[in-house]
Amino acid sequence: MSVLGPRYYFGVYHWRRRFRSLALAAVALAVAAVVGSRTRRRSGRIAASLVASTAAVRGFRTLRQLMGPTPWSLERAKYDALASGLPLDRADRVLDVGCGTGRSLVGIAPHVPAGTDVVGLDVFDDRVILGNGPRLARRNAARAGLEVEPVAGDAATLPLRDDSVDVATACRVLHDLPASSAEGALRELRRVCTADATVGILELPLVPDDVVGAPDPEAYWTDRVLEAGFAIETLERLELAGREEPYIVLVARPDTAR
Length: 258
Ligand SMILES: C[S@@+](CC[C@H](N)C(=O)[O-])C[C@H]1O[C@@H](n2cnc3c(N)ncnc32)[C@H](O)[C@@H]1O
Hints:
This protein is of the alpha/beta class. The protein folds into 2 domains: 12-66; 76-254, Rossmann fold, CATH 3.40.50.150. It has helices at residues 15-38, 42-66, 76-83, 103-108, 134-143, 179-192, 217-227; strands at residues 12-13, 93-97, 117-122, 129-130, 148-152, 165-171, 193-203, 230-238, 247-254. It has a 7-stranded mixed sheet with strand order 5-3-2-6-7-9-8, with helices on both faces. A two-stranded antiparallel sheet has the order 1-4. Helix 6 links the parallel strand 6 and strand 7 (193-203). The longest helix is centred in the N-terminal third of the chain and has 25 residues, at 42-66. The protein is elongated and about 80 Å long. The termini are far apart. S-adenosylmethionine binds at residues 98-100, 103-104, 122-123, 125, 129, 132, 154-156, 171-173, 176-177, 181.
């Protein structure tokens, strides 16, 4: 954060559910306060104060969740770890799939030389992330010194030509898709990548919700990436201070022998 305030605004995650829960807590608190102040019976006042304290706790928790992640925070280390395995300094064209409001673009920005053609692709659906749209992606990236062309599209049907991307990244997006779309997205990455391209995947230790059983996320993503026609260069489990869960950082290249 600069002295003038946050430099970036990446939107509020799960804002509809959380705003709804905040509004409900506020209504419950107000009703309990009115009922508690008007009732003469002790049991009524006790019940009202119980409702009020439960609503206050809920409201406070939701407020904290609204700030998770804080809309201006970056957690730069994970993007640095990803970028360290990618030849971003030599790429003519970089694609960030699922760029959203631009966190991952800002994350890779210090590693991308000026003049590189950078495409930020997302469905730009603001029902989950408040403000998710091309404007924020472009603005946040620009504040990090990166000129980006935001493209609205689906990762599973990339609106890009074959063999047109030198480095592609997908940060915290694949696990959010249904399994078939995640597989489709990886196949699409293979299609748009040049033969000597590099793909970097940054994932939470999660698999898509509709995957049956509970496969190990590292093995799961390794298999999907191989199936899509890539060879794995590196697979790292990234533990960051202050975080309970590690990230999975996977770097792959087209398997041209296949
Ligand atoms: C958790 S955000 C990650 C944003 C950013 N990459 C980062 O590292 O913070 C996931 C993003 O994936 C996008 N997304 C979800 N489904 C998508 C799809 N089928 N194609 C492209 N983007 C998608 C969402 O709109 C959202 O912006």
